[in-house]
Design goal:
336 residues, hpI Integrase, Chain A, two-stranded antiparallel sheet, Tyrosine_recombinase_XerCD
Length: 336
Amino acid sequence: MELEPIDPETAFELYIAEKETSVADATVASHKSRRSFLLRWCEERDIENLNKLTGRRLQEFRLWRRNVGDLTKVSEKTQMDTLRVFVKWLESIDAVEQDLHKKVRSPDITPRENSRDVMLETEDAEELLTYLERYEYASLHHVIAKILWHTMLRMGSVRALDVEDYDPEEQSLRLRHRPDTDTPLKNKREGERIIAVSNEVCLVLDDWIRERRLDVTDDHGRNPLLTTSGGRISKSSFRMKCYRMSRPCEYGQACPHDREPADCEATISRAASKCPSSVSPHPFRRGAITHYLQSDVPETVVGDRANVTADVIDQHYDQRSQKEKMEQRRGYLDDI
């Protein structure tokens, strides 16, 4: 096979153009970020034609990338696995030798090493929700926490909800993939579904919509369920509100880090993420999934509701100990 010369920038642009038609925007952004290091490496080594890539060159890049970024083992694996996908694509356009992707080396890691186990513990979530119920009822903080904990939804899914997606009669929320108006779902059309919500959640949503929701539209003329003065709540604002409300001192608990609130930098709202106990939206989801599994809700039910496969639940979300799992299985099997 005769290779066709191609420079790194052109190859990168063609690759991204293809990805944009088949994967979510966030995935495209990740590919852009990770591949930008390859472009930098090629430039530093005057590699103007990717035909010159070899197994040895790729190993040199791996070592360079590890040192430049001070990568963890997990991050290094993510980088090299993404590179392998790119090299395999290069093979498809005759830019590199066939099967070169098999020479991309990546560290072996255990499922536990590949799992991010930060989560909002059940006890903390219950304390937080009790506080919000009493002191910030039907506030934006309360609605966000209530939905995240009781539905196990991703931040993007909650943010995508419109008022019309809430059906108080059926007590349900409808999730729809609408990328053209800035609210895509992670799994696109596969993520579309209707989920039931409890009477307790509905009461909060009803009061939020009637009493406290700002009656504004977003930039596309839609009626967001969660609003701020600027329209639909932004991703950054959503994250910041989670960090703020999840600081233990914010919901009436003693500081677990022996800090004095008057001297703690994390008590400033914009620095809330500096509190070691504060969490972003995803730990709400991870904690909720683990909570429902611990409450003996079948894994298939949790997976369908949260829109996640059993394998992903086991690897990234389920924080039950092996003993907890054993005892739950015992409950099902003892009477058989």
